[in-house]
TrEMBL record:
The lineage of its organism: Bacteria, Pseudomonadati, Bacteroidota, Sphingobacteriia, Sphingobacteriales. The chain crosses the membrane at residues 40-58, 64-87, 107-127, 156-175, 182-201, 216-239, 251-269, 275-295, 307-324, 336-358. One of its GO terms (cellular component) is membrane. It comes from the Bacteria. This is Acyltransferase family protein. It comes from Mucilaginibacter aquatilis.
Amino acid sequence: MTSTEVNHDLNTTTEKPPFFAEVNELPPFLKQKYVPSLDGFRAFSIILVLIAHISYNYNNDTLAKYGTFGVNVFFVISGFLITSLLIKEKVTYKSVSLRNFYIRRFLRILPVAYLFLAVLFALNFIFKLNLSAASFLRPLFFVENFGDHSSYTLAGHFWSLSVEEQFYLIFPFLIARSLKNYIITAIALIPGILVITYVYFHLHTNLLIVDFILNVIYHLLGNGISIILVGSLAAIFLCKYEHLFILKSKYIALFQILLMALSFFFFNHRLFMNINSTISALFIALSIIYTIVNKEGFIFQILNNKYVRYLGTLSYSIYIWQELFTFKQPWANLPYGNSVILNLILLAVTAVASYHLYEKYFLKLKARFSTVK
C-alpha cells in the first residue's frame, strides 16, 4: 500500500466514523429467519401490562406502575426491530421501499385496532357506557397520546400505539435516506426530549400560544419517542459491533437478569429531568441485545420456548383487546362480570380468535409487501 493510499484511508475514516457510516453487510443476527428472543420479551411485556391493569381493580399502585414499564419494553423492541429490518432491506437491495414499509405497518396495526374500536362502539350502545366522541376519534386517528387521561377511557391504551405510529411517520424517512443523519438526529433528540419534558412539567408562561406549542411538542416527542429511539440506536450499534456483545461465560443468564433488574431499578427511581426512563430503556436494550447474541443459558431457553414465543406472537392481539377484560369491564354489573379469572379466559379466547381468524388474513397480505426474508 502506498503512502497516498494510507492517507486516503485515514481521511476516509476521519470523515466517516464507523458508527455513523452506513451498514454495508448484514450482521449475523439479521441473517436468521427471525430475530431470536424478541417474541419472548413481548410475552414478558404483555404479562406486565396485564398484571398492572388487573391491579387497578384493587387500587394496587405498586403493581400498576409496571404496566408502563411493560410498554417501555414494547417501545424498545419496536425501535430495535423496525430499524433492524430497514437496515436489512437497505443492505440487501441498496434502498428502502417506504411505500411497502407503510403498507406493512398499515396491515399489521390498523385492521385489529379498528376492529376493536368498532366493537367498542357497539358495546357503548349495548351497555350505555356514555363514551364521548373524542374517546373514539383520538384512537381512530392515533392521537390518543394527546388526550386527557384523568378520566381513563376503554381506548386509553391506544396512547402507546399513537406514539409508535407518530414515530413511523417521521423517522423511517431518515433511516432510508441517510443513516448518519438519522443517528445524529436521534442522539440529539434523546437529551432534547428530556429538556422538553422538564420544561413542560415545570414551566408555565401563561401565554396561550407558548403553552399550546409546548404542549404539542411534549405530547409528540415526550411520551415514548425517546424510548423507541434508544431501541433504534441499539439496533444500529448491534449491526456494527455484534462481536462486542458475545460472552463466553456460564454466568451469562445471571448477567442478563442483572441488566433487566437494573432497568427495573432505574425505572422505579426518579432522577433529574426524568432521565431514569432513558437509563432504564438503555438497560432494556442491552438485555435484549445480550439475549439475542448469546444463545447459551436458561434465559435464552425460556424466551425462545415455543409456548413463550406463541404468547409473544399474540401479544399485540392481547394488548388491543385486554382493556375490555382487565378493568372497567362494560359487563361488570352482570353476574361474574368482574371475575378476574373468567375475564382472563375470555381475553385469551378473544385474542386467539382475533389472531387466527382475522389478523392472519392481513398478515398474509402483509407478507406480499415484504422485501426481506
